[in-house]
Each structure stands twice: as C-alpha cells, then as structure tokens.
Amino acid sequence: MAMKIIDKMLIQTAVYWGAPVAGGRGSSTFATAIEISVRWEDTQELFIDKFGVEKTSKAIVYVGQDVVVGGFLYLGELTDLPISHSDPQIIDGAHEIRAFGKLPTLKGDQFLRTTWL
Length: 117
Known about the structure:
Blueprint: H1 5-9, E1 12-17, E2 21-22, E3 28-29, E4 34-41, E5 46-48, E6 54-56, E7 60-63, E8 72-75, E9 94-96, E10 99-104, E11 111-116
Antiparallel strand pairs: 1-4, 1-8, 2-3, 4-7, 5-6, 7-11, 8-9, 10-11
C-alpha cells in the first residue's frame, strides 16, 4: 500500500500526554506519555481557543492521530525526558495543546490534524 501524503510529512517524533484527569483532593494526573509522529513548526499563528478567544500560537504541530485540548506535546523522544516524566507541566519544552482541528482530504481517506500550542 502506498504511503499517504500526510503520513509522509510526519517525520518528527513528539511525546504526547492526554489531558489531565481529576483525582482526589484537588489533584490531577496525566495519562502515560506516548511517542507520536508529527511535523512541528515553530511559528506564530492566530487561532481561536476553546473559549472563543483569539490567541497567538507558539507552534503549530501536525499529528497523525486525534489529540485533546489540555494535553501536552514535547518535541523529542521519551528517552530525551527526565526519568520522572509523568507531569508535563514541569518539563522544559513541553507545551499545552490549546486548540485542535481536523480536516479531511479531498478523497476523505485521511485527515490533516492540526494542533496549536
């Protein structure tokens, strides 16, 4: 099967943590970090956040799977992270996903998934 064009552009690796889940006593925990294929562009772009407010991104990241707003992305591999990497909020270089969009290709056989950090 031929490699699809969107798959071809996802040549970098990032670490992804899903949005935190509330725990007891006001604490929250993140899902286990996983590596995903991405295309990371350090660029500023205006976007509308989940509250309808216009913001400016630090980066735009194209991803090969659905991700959630409130999750985090880090450009690199799991082995690049400190031993304790369960909380991305304290990892230098990890950024919160502030918006997510999903656009089907003209054939409808793939999606261009975009995040704004």
